[in-house]
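Go through the following before class.
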Amino acid sequence: MPEIEIRDNPKLRSVFRNITELTFTGFVWGIWVYLLLPLVNIIMWILGLRFIEISVVEKLGYAEMIGLMIKMGWIVLTVFLILRVWGLYNYKRFGKRSRRESSPPVTIEQLAMHFHIPVEQVEYMRSQKEVVWENERISESS
């Protein structure tokens, strides 16, 4: 069986082929990176915890870290209490009132009057599965 000689000369490729190949390659690499994101996320999380431990705990000591955690806790508690008081105020002020006014159901007579058609035709249209409405103005102008 004769050997096949493969000649790879990038200069002979068209611009469209190069753009297509680069686009496809970039797309596949993007999918590959997207699939590896959970692993990268775990590694960065571990490195981030180690960085916090080195920068906060070892340099400043545990007393500073505990003080920082207490300050953050007070801030979170304060924000929670503000939001809770605001929610209770809204519930007391507006919670039991229903200001929405519902409109009464539309009767067949009102529909017939609105569309200028007989009541029997509205009843017939209501019983149909599909209604095709033809506008008289459009059919008159055609």
